[in-house]
């Protein structure tokens, strides 16, 4: 299924492109395509990653996040000719390809089709896959851009079809470049004009939103788990409260674990917990291993329907929360805030997570968060201060008593 933004459909037929996930490897790609005279005919810069759900041999489903854009090549890219339009063809990772075709319909050009191919025979990326071979997903986009304009879309864009979700953002592209000079005149996507859907923000520290959402009662604490075959590979216990600021309107959503679906996936270096409900399309927590001996929350992705009927989507793949040694769990009884962006935060309550090395479906020894440690330090500090005062009082008493006895001896 390809998701369209209604306002784009009216008149222009523009597609709601989308983006998401990523990792350290999801850096911006930039490609300057030249013709036989070495003049630029097409320029493109963008970020992207993908989510693929596939069936396993035991008839369960796994979800894989593809954000490693290493070993990128552009074989098959072309400026086009009288019969065929320009094309950007990107190959990356282990058997992945992504192709965008452009066509000219004066006074516009079209971002016409987007195709994504992956080799499900790759056991490293798709362990225990039921089906084998190369799968190609074609999406008709037909996004119109005036000729001689460069198209810009920083906002989150999502294309979903046949168990594949494509995430694209920070787009800057111009096909049919005239005289080898990329235009400075920008044509903005509707999402950037109206800011209904927000692009991923790749910053670890994010300011608090303004205005602050109205306080709401604490959410129920839920127990969530992900299985890999017959064993549990990820455990999470937490109360979740979503805080959203959009168009100067703040929303607070408490997640009810009793009406929340749970899926996910586990791999040696990454693990994903995905939650969904009637109004939450997905809420992803993606964990990663660092330095081969610790894990942390690296990524959060969300797409949900707001009360006003709009869709709110955002992603951040450069987080650094819930850090703990491998083989242990991370625990924090006190309320914590995960700042995903200026417009989206998650408050957690009674948090405990273990995304790796789960043994017999049980949590391992917990590492407490700094917030809990601070709360232990407060009574210790107060007790130490009181003990100090008591010692001073006793010293003063004994000194006074000694002087008193010395006064009697003089008689």
Automatic annotation (TrEMBL):
Pfam families: Lamp2-like_luminal, Lamp2_2nd
Bilayer topology term: Single-pass type I membrane protein
Covalent S-S links between cysteines: 153-189, 332-369
Domain of life of the native organism: Eukaryota
Gene3D superfamilies: 2.40.160.110
Signal peptide positions (record): 1-28
Residue intervals of the Lysosome-associated membrane glycoprotein 2-like luminal domain: 30-177, 219-358
Keywords, in A-Z order: Autophagy, Cell membrane, Cytoplasmic vesicle, Disulfide bond, Endosome, Glycoprotein, Lysosome, Membrane, Signal, Transmembrane, Transmembrane helix
Transmembrane annotation, as ranges: 376-399
A GO BP annotation: protein targeting to lysosome involved in chaperone-mediated autophagy
Sequence ranges assigned to domain Lysosome-associated membrane glycoprotein 2-like transmembrane in this UniProt record: 378-408
Cell compartment(s), UniProt: Cell membrane; Cytoplasmic vesicle, Autophagosome membrane; Endosome membrane; Lysosome membrane
InterPro entries noted in UniProt: Lamp2-like_luminal (IPR048528), Lamp2-like_TM (IPR048524), LAMP_CS (IPR018134), Lysosome-assoc_membr_glycop (IPR002000)
Quaternary structure and partners: Monomer. Forms large homooligomers. Interacts (via its cytoplasmic region) with HSPA8; HSPA8 mediates recruitment of proteins with a KFERQ motif to the surface of the lysosome for chaperone-mediated autophagy. Interacts with HSP90 in the lysosome lumen; this enhances LAMP2 stability. Interacts with MLLT11. Interacts with ABCB9. Interacts with FURIN. Interacts with CT55; this interaction may be important for LAMP2 protein stability. Interacts with TMEM175; inhibiting the proton channel activity of TMEM175.
Membership in a protein family: Belongs to the LAMP family.
Name of protein: Lysosome-associated membrane glycoprotein 2
Taxonomy of the source species: Eukaryota, Metazoa, Chordata, Craniata, Vertebrata
Encoding gene (name): LAMP2
């Amino acid at each position: 299924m390809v998701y369209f933004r209604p306002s784009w459909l009216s008149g222009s037929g523009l597609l709601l492109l989308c983006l998401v996930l990523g990792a350290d490897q999801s850096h911006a790609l930039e490609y300057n395509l030249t013709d036989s005279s070495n003049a630029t005919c097409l320029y493109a810069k963008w970020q992207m990653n993908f989510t693929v759900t596939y069936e396993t041999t035991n008839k369960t489903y796994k979800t894989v996040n593809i954000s490693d854009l290493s070993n990128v090549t552009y074989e098959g890219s072309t400026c086009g000719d009288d019969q065929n339009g320009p094309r950007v063809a990107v190959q990356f990772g282990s058997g992945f390809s992504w192709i965008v075709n452009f066509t000219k319909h004066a006074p516009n050009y079209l971002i016409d089709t987007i195709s994504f191919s992956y080799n499900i025979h790759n056991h490293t990326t798709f362990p225990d896959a039921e089906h084998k071979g190369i799968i190609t997903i074609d999406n008709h986009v037909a996004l119109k851009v005036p000729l001689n304009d460069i198209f810009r879309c920083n906002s989150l864009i999502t294309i979903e079809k046949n168990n594949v979700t494509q995430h694209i953002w920070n787009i800057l592209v111009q096909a049919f470049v005239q005289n080898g000079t990329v235009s400075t005149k920008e044509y903005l996507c509707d999402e950037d004009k109206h800011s209904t859907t927000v692009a991923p923000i790749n910053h670890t520290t994010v300011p608090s939103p303004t205005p602050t959402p109205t306080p709401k009662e604490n959410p129920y604490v839920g127990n969530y788990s992900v299985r890999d075959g017959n064993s549990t590979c990820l455990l999470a216990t937490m109360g979740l409260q979503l805080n959203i600021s959009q168009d100067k309107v703040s929303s607070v959503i408490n997640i009810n674990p009793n009406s929340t679906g749970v899926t996910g996936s586990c791999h040696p270096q990454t693990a994903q917990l995905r939650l969904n409900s009637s109004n939450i399309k997905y809420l992803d927590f993606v964990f990663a291993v660092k330095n081969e001996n610790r894990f942390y929350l690296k990524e959060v992705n969300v797409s949900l329907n707001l009360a006003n009927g709009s869709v709110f989507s955002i992603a951040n793949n450069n987080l650094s929360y819930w850090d703990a040694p491998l083989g242990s769990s991370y625990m924090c009884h006190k309320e914590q805030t995960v700042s995903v962006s200026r417009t989206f935060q998650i408050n957690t309550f009674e948090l405990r997570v273990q995304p790796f090395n789960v043994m017999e479906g049980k949590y391992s020894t917990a590492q407490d968060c700094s917030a809990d440690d601070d709360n232990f330090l407060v009574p210790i500090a107060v007790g130490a201060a009181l003990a100090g005062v008591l010692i001073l009082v006793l010293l003063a008493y004994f000194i006074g008593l000694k002087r008193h006895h010395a006064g009697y001896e003089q008689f």
